Structure formats: structure tokens, C-alpha cells
Amino acid sequence: MNKILSIGAVVVLLLFNACEKELNQVPFSQATTETFYAIPNDFIQGTNAIYSNLRTYPDRLLNLSETRSDNLYAISDGGVRDWEGINDFYKNLSTNPYIEEAWATNYNGIYKANVLLGQIEKNGSIITDEVLKKRLEAEAKFLRAFFYFDLVRIFGKVPIIDKVVTANEALAIPRSAVADVYKLIESDLQFAVDNLPPVYTIAADRGRATSYAARGILALVYMTKSGPTYDIEGPGLASNEWGKAYTLLNKIVVDNKYAFVSNYADIFSYSNENNPEVIFDVQYNTGSNPVTGATFPWLLAPDNWFTSLGKPVQGGLTIRPISNSLLSAYPANDTRKAFSIQNGYTGTGGVVETRSFFKKYIDLTKVPSSRVDWPINYIVLRYTDVLMLRAECVLNGGGGDVATEVIAPINQIRARAGLTVPLVTLTIPQLMEQRRLEFAGEGLRWHDLVRSGLVTTVIPAWDAADDIENKMEPFTKDFVIYPIPYNQINLKKDLYTQNKGYN
């Protein structure tokens, strides 16, 4: 994929992909947008620029979903860290850099999508290949929807900006109702479903969104909408669209373009990227200048562990410990636990660390010299997720068969993890626990709890059992979403009202 770095007034397009799979790269100035789109390839480069805003998406999931959930007890032992307020449900999070990043990066991506879409409308006749033109429009709409969906899950109501506007015009755009934001998301994703190719035959195009990726994300949108409202203006609208989601997910399964990888570790192997599980991922190009590799692998691991092994300092600083709740949830012989979790270590100077942390994405033979240049992709949507999301739709009355589309695939997933005793029944809470074990460390847990309605019972129970240092604030339903960043609230008086429950 790609990343944009601002250097003064120049925006550099870093079109990055994984390892040797590079889309392209070209610099351009924002001031020359009108003249940039002169040949068909310029529109491809403009589309690639939108993908660049996915670079930090994995980090955001780990900071705002994994850390917020009951999977981590992220209490720092080395000074106040930005993740602590996320973990502890602080009310004064409006200046938290993780939250500011979520707003800024998503809207930057939306801006780039709007630029591309505006140029296709204005100058699209330059692209004589109508199939390519539709594909580029569909890619831009897929990504715009992706960014808006991320915003809705994090902030609830957000401003709808579906065309390029000036700074002054933006100051007159209020936050829109969540239902209205979803209308844009669904429209964009449906266009992507209808106009994106099912596969790309050129290796350099790996990492671009496909029609199957659009189906999967649209299904998750319907499922998220179908979640409870919690009496707040958050992502759940209790819309009961499980049937729509089921149809989309079932299409992915029955078309047989993806497959269940038999060995869990192989899904995340550095030498097995683009494996049959991968439906959509964020891809990185390493060894480039400027650097465009990944940063998420080390995010939850402490620096002292790396240095104790003779590896370069990464940036994880102190440990973000895994919660006792998650550690005790794994059955005996579950191979996912050993693969995903480091159970302590002996650090520099012989200091013994007994707490556990995630190592899921770390291959110690692949540690780069630069901590921002890890050579591993982040899987946004994988086939196992589709199977489990479809099972969730079935259990919520969206159609399908419990025996073949819930029990059978869940037992297949468990068998891959070394759990030989099959389940014979499954409830929504039990399914969410199976998802927890499968996707631990992948940043999905918080959104799963919110969508399923379990967050208001699971989090308080976890707090009571695991908060041994008494650091966490009492959970309220207002904390299903995050506060609007203060730097946005402060742009114009009364333009935005802060989300309830936050300072």
C-alpha cells in the first residue's frame, strides 16, 4: 500500500506494498492537484495515495480496541503512558494523541478520496479504459467508507464531508447523525462490491481492495449497526440487519476464493503473506527511502525484551501486560496461546519479568534495524473471521443453519488450535469467547464486545476481578465511544458538542 509524509508544503506519495510487492511511488504538491491529473497513470497514483492512510490502522486497533478491552491490563510501571487512560476509562481523553491520530488520519484519507473522486468526475475522460475508471472510483469509495466506518466506531457522530471543501467551508459542517453516516458508508461499499474485481492478476496490484473485501466490510457494517444503541449516539442502531450481513458473508464462503489455513502460525508467517486466509490486508514496503514498513508488531511488547535478546530498541517502552482474564481463558493445549503470548522473560541485568505480553506478529529473525520498518502485513479481514462473523449472524437470526454454519466451523477452528473436544452448542457469549481466543492481539476484541452487547457486563466484571491496583475508573455506557479530540472541539465555538461522559 502507501503512505504520505508531509515535508514542508510538499506531500510525498509513498506507494508502499509488502516487501517486493510495491505499487509505485511519486511525489506531488497539493497546490498542483488540478494539473497533476493529466494521464491515466496519475489517477492510479492518486488512488494509491489514499491507501497510504491505512499505514497506522493496525496501531490504532491495538491502541484503541485491544488496549481498551479486557485482553490487556495496561497499567504502566514506568511513568504515565498514553495508553493508560485508554485502558482505565479516563474522562479527560480529548487530548490523547491516539484519539487525535484516529480523527486526523481518517479525515486525511477521506480528503484524498474526495480529491480523486472529484478529479474522476471532472477529468475522467482522460481514462479511456472504462473498466479501470470504474475500478479506481470503486477503490476510492471503498477506502472512504472504510475510514468513515472507523470514525463511527470510535466517535459515533462525525461530520460528513463527501467532496473537497475549503477550511472555511469545513468549519460550517456539523457532526451528522450516525444513521446518515452509515448511508454514505453503505452506498460507497455497495458501489465497491459492484465495481471492484474479485481478484487482481498482476502481482503489483496485491493489496488493493477486491469485491470480496468490500462484501466483508459491508457485512461488518450491517452487523455493527445491528448492535445495541446503549442509549448513546454510538455505532449501534439496533437495526437488525443480520440477514443482509449473512448473505454477503455467505457469498464469500460459497464462492470458494479463500481457504482455511490448517496451521494457525502460518497465517501470520513473514514468508507466507497473501496466503489463502487473506481477504484484505494493509501491505508494507520495507527497505525503502523514506521508510514505509510496519510499526504494529512491537507496539505491545516491551523494549527491554528486545534489548535482552540483542535486538534494537523498538518503542514499546514498558510492558502492556496481558490480563489474567485472557490468560486463564485459554484451555489446556490451545496452541494459539504459546504462539501469540510471551510468558515473561529474563531481561537485561538478570531482571526477571513474570508478566505476559503479545508477540503474535514478532519474528525475532526479522527484527529490522529501524523500528518503523517491520516487513509484515496486517490482515484486516481473514477467512476465519468471515466464518465466525457468519456464525454470529446465524445465531442472531440472520438465516443459515446452526449445525453446518456455526458448530462445524467453530469446531474446525478449535481443532486447528489443538482442541479435540468438539462443542455441541454455542451461544453468542460463547462465540465471542471463541473469537477472543482466535483473534487475541489483533485489535478486534473491543469492537466485538460493543457489537454483541456484552461490553456493559464483561468490562465491569473484568474490572472487579483484574484491577488489582485499583487504577480503573468505573465503566459506563458512555465509554462505548471516545471523546471528540479537543483540537477539533476548539476549532469553532459550538460547531461540535463533546460526547457525553467526557471532559
UniProtKB/TrEMBL annotation:
It comes from Pelobium manganitolerans. One of its GO terms (cellular component) is cell outer membrane. Keywords: Cell outer membrane, Membrane, Signal. InterPro entries: SusD-like_N, SusD_RagB_dom, TPR-like_helical_dom_sf. This is Carbohydrate-binding protein SusD. Coiled coil: none annotated. Residues 357-502 form the RagB/SusD domain. The keyword Membrane applies. SUPFAM superfamilies: TPR-like. It is found in: Cell outer membrane. The keyword RNA-binding does not apply. It comes from the Bacteria. Residues 80-223 form the SusD-like N-terminal domain. It holds the Pfam family SusD_RagB. Belongs to the SusD family.
